[in-house]
TrEMBL record:
May interact with Ccs1. This is Cytochrome c biogenesis protein CcsA. One of its GO terms (cellular component) is plasma membrane. The chain crosses the membrane at residues 6-27, 39-59, 71-88, 95-116, 136-165, 225-244, 259-274, 286-310. Its main location: membrane. It is found in: Membrane; Plastid, Chloroplast thylakoid membrane. It comes from Ophioglossum hongii. Keywords: Chloroplast, Cytochrome c-type biogenesis, Membrane, Plastid, Thylakoid, Transmembrane, Transmembrane helix. Pfam families: Cytochrom_C_asm (PF01578). PANTHER family: CYTOCHROME B_B6 PROTEIN-RELATED, HEME EXPORTER PROTEIN C. Residues 67-311 form the Cytochrome c assembly protein domain. It is a multi-pass membrane protein. Belongs to the CcmF/CycK/Ccl1/NrfE/CcsA family. It comes from the Eukaryota.
Amino acid sequence: MIHIKIENILVHISLFSLSFGTISYWGNLLCRSKNLRSLGEGSVAIALACTTIFLIIRWLHLKHLPLSNSYESFMFLSWSLSLLNLFLNHREQNAWLSAIIAPSAMLTHSFATLGLPKEMQNSPVLVPASQSHWLMMHVSMMLLSYATILCGSLLAITLLLVIIYDPSANLSTPQNYFIRSLLSDNEKTSYMQIEDSLENFFYLISKNSRREILIKKLDHWSHRIIGLGFPLLTIGISSGAVWANEAWGSYWSWDPKETWAFITWLIYAIYSHTRVTRGWRGKQSAIVAVTGFFSVWICYLGVNLLGIGLHSYGWLI
């Protein structure tokens, strides 16, 4: 059918644009080029437009929001990540943000397009329980919360990697005459050695200063983005409980996805609470966010992989 061909064209244009945008953002991270940043923004904008049209076409064809199987949910997640990338790029022109978020949108889109079987990419017929106005509210809020929380958690992972990489580890190398002269009992040090040592010393001070600024920025944006995602997650879980009561006569049944959604919510509640009451920053809060990162993937994808529970749709095995 014609709409299927159009969908395929849009999906592949979107995937190519996200891939090109990712390369451009990575190039901008290395070279700090305005042209590369503009290319990245333009590519992601094209991908967002194509994915938006794809979702609208499928919406018009199905007569409901296309969020009823793994393929559609991954496409919506990729759309959310692309939108978040452009929004944050407009608010804060930070090379790190785009270099992390754009690849996330690209990988999500790639998994949906290339990783899922063709039969799972077809439009499914909704079961009676899913034929409700709560479908749009609950699923869209959950996927938007996943997109924001995953982005914030990826920034936390980057923060931990920056902390783990310690540039001062190179202080013990034989070329560093400044440290060698401090540790050596030999009082005779040449003028050239002292000059090299001072250059190394001031370079390390500058490098450590830039590193601390980067850590603070990553912590700040990780907190801001997770702070946006946590209320969305709360709304998504609450609306899901109301929908479950209408469909199954119970607000909460400890279904595997419900259980992991609650665990995820609890982890990010701890994240927010410890930052406010205990003043956790940097490494401590990043570890909590990374724990939530894995919890989100178990909740979102793990249940589908196992194919168990009322929330499992379109499992892979």
